[in-house]
Each structure stands twice: as structure tokens, then as C-alpha cells.
Amino acid sequence: MRPYELLVGLRYTRAKRRTHFISFISLVSMLGIALGIAALITVMSVMNGFEKEIRARILGAAAHIQVTGGEAGMRDWQGVAAAVSKHPEVLATAPFVQAQGLLSTGSAVRGVYVRGVVPDMEDQVADFSKHMRGGSLSALRPGEFGLVVGIGVARALGLRVGDRVTLISPQGQVTPAGLMPRLKQFTVVGIFSLDHNEYDSALALARMEDAQVLYRMDGAVSGVRVKVRDIDGAPRVAREIAATLPPDSYVTDWTQQNVNYFRAIQIEKRMMFIILTLIIAVAAFNLVSTLVMVVTDKHPDIAILRTLGAAPSSIMKIFVVQGAVIGTIGTLLGVVTGILLALNVDVVVPFIERTFHFRILSSEVYYISELPSDLQWADVWSVAVVSLLLAFVATIYPSWRASRVNPAEALRYE
Question: Which of 39, 220, 319, 412 could join 399 via S-S bond, C-beta 3.0 to 4.6 A?
Fold first, then answer.
């Protein structure tokens, strides 16, 4: 691009219009681009924050990787744990017994998933001890038949630490009177709250040895839970671990166990990106009308430049520069505003709530009462590039029209 084309294009951008309406439309286009970009960056950061928050709460109870046996369970879990621990990405392992049961107290009954654990080992792969509302996980001792329940289960059954509750196994036992369910009284020794309904309202933890007795596991376990160094690399580590284990071992990772949660979040994030990109597109294509009016306003100037020897391609470049400047300024304003909003959501949202006297996320309705935000620079760059491309595309048609101006026609009435 020749220097004079760039200089003329920049001068047209700064010059006062004979028609103030053109300047107003240019300003609106610029602010529209900035507003769309700021909204897109902020919304994507909030969506990333929700995904990060939900993932943290799910992984507070779920394993990064889970190795399970067949229907008969896993008898040599120590050997499996030792083989898994040889992988350099594995941080800890813990055996578990997984079964279903009914908790009964008085006239209240609640279905739960019972997980038999070894507290010291479970603390290394999960975060139950960090989310205890009462009691402790270490109170689960062999032979004492203690139980740690989620806060939703405790509220539904009216349980407190120290209360007795009956755990009924769906596996029956044959007696002279017929098939009878197996049941055992447990003592509530702890209550946890992960702020995740799936676990808080349907999970109960027992000592592994007690669960083996109740469910007649005969020393076997359901499987081994594994914690890895990088949770995003868990699928790769799971595949590598599976290749070293016997064929009757089934290996899954956290992305497979909670695929619906994260698939829904990814779909929502993509849809929000598309919808808000359309807002940027509308603002960017306002540049078309702006530049068409500028071209009409500058017909005499274009004719003079053509008379002095400017080529049609040079005229086109002049107006591409003008449109690109408007798009670039709007993009920069939007990126800066979006980054500031994304980094200060925890300040902006409470201010709006105090000003208008309402709660965006009520703690009585939602488990997450504050808007989380996780700004990712890859999102910022992708939004900025899309905006600049849309702005550039919007300048092509008006610039082409400017290059087609006939000097004789333009100067006839001047």
C-alpha cells in the first residue's frame, strides 16, 4: 500500500463531515462493535467460570479415573493400585465399594448410593474432608458401622451427627419365611456439603470393610479410584492405564462419567458465541451504510484524485483504510472493556444488585450464588480476530463502489 493512500484514508477518518449524520453513524458503528465484543468476552468468561466451578464440585466427589472389575468385583485391588501407581501422572489411588441402598428412619425412607471407602486413602483422591458440615470422615472405623451422608440426605431424613439410621440392602437373603432384605443399623458420624445436588442428596459414605460385610463382597471391592496430576489429561492417562491392566478391568475417566454436564455447557457456550457474534456482525455491517454515505459525500474528492492519476485500486484502498480504522478502534475498545468487566464481575454484579435491589443468583434457588468468571486469552483473541474480519469484509463493497466513480460525472455539477 502506497503511503498517500494510508495518509488520505486516515485523514478522511479524522476530517469533519459536511453532514454530521455520517459522523454520528460512524460513532454508532464503532460503539456497536465495542459493545458486542465486550458482551461476548464477558459472557464467555462467565461460561468458563461456571464450567470451572461445576467441574471443581463434581471432582470433589468423583474420581479423575476409575478402574472397576466385573460383576464379582475386584479381588486383587492392591495389585491393580500398584500397577496404576507406576504411571508418572498418577498421584494417588483408593479402593471403593459402590452399591445401592435405602436409608430408613422412622417413617422416612431415602434411596442412596452407598460408597465404601478407606478414609485416609479417600482423602487423597477426593475432597470430602474439606466440605464437612459436621463430624469427620476419619470417624469411619471398621466394625463400628458409621455413615457419612450428604446434607440433602440429612435434611430429607432429619438426621444429625450421632443419630441412628437403618441401611437396607436390595440384595435379599433366603429364610424359612421367604426372601428377606438385609438391613443394618448405622450411626451418622458426619455430614458433608459439596454444593452439588447429585452428591449431596444421594450419596452416603461407609467404611469399606463394613460395606463389604453388608453387601457380602467377600473381601472384594468394586474398583479403584485414581487421582492424576493434570485433570485435562485424564482421558489420555486412562487409555494408557487400560493398556497395562487385565482385560476384565474397565477404565473410565471423569469426562465419560459426567459427559452430559460438560456437553451441555459446551453447547451453550457455542450458541452464546454464535448469538453474540451476530450482534458484532450487525454493528460491523453498519460500516457498509457509513462508508456508502462517506463515498457519496466524497465524490468530488474522488474525482480529483482520479484526475490526478490515482488508480481505482488506490481509491479502494483509501476507503478500506477508513473502514478498517473504525473497526480496529471499536475492537480495541470492546476488548479492553470486556477484559475489565470479566476481571471485575465480582465487583460489578454486587453493585448492580445493590443499585436495583435484586439478586441475580439467589442462594435460596441456585447452588452457585455468585457469578464466577474465568477469562481465557484464547477466547479474547478469537473474538478480536472475528471482529476485525467482519469489519474488513464490511468495507469491501463501499470501497469497490468508490473505485467505480466516474470523474466526469462526479465533477459535472461542482
Answer: 319
274 with 241, same domain: the answer is no
Q: Model-level pTM?
A: 0.69
Question: What tens digit of pLDDT does each residue of 42-89 get?
Answer: 888 888 888 787 777 777 777 888 888 877 778 888 888 888 888 899
Residue-level pLDDT at 115:
92
Domain count, the chain: 2
| Dihedral angle sign, alpha carbons of residues 146, 147, 148, 152 | negative
Residues 297 and 339 in one domain: yes
- pLDDT band at residue 189 using 50, 70 and 90 as cut-offs: very high
For residues 277 and 145, state if they share a domain: no
Whole-number Å distance between alpha carbons of 408 and 380: 47
Question: Which cell is 348 given?
Answer: 460489578
Where are the strands (E) in 107-240, listed by range?
Answer: 108-117, 132-135, 146-150, 164-175, 178-192, 203-207, 223-228
CA-derived radius of gyration, the chain? 33
Do 248 and 349 share a domain, yes or no?
Answer: no
DSSP tag of 67: E
Q: CA–CA separation, 302 vs 126, rounded Å? A: 71
Give pLDDT tens digits for 120-170.
Answer: 888 888 888 888 888 888 888 888 899 999 998 998 888 889 889 988 887
Which of 219, 235, 257 lies at the terminal end of a domain, its last residue? 257
Using DSSP, state whether 23 is helix, strand or coil.
Answer: helix
Q: Give the containing element (helix H, strand E) for 174.
A: strand 164-175
The position carrying cell 469489519 is 391
| 11 and 92 housed in the same domain | no
C-alpha cell at 45: 468468561
| Structural domain containing residue 102 | 65-257
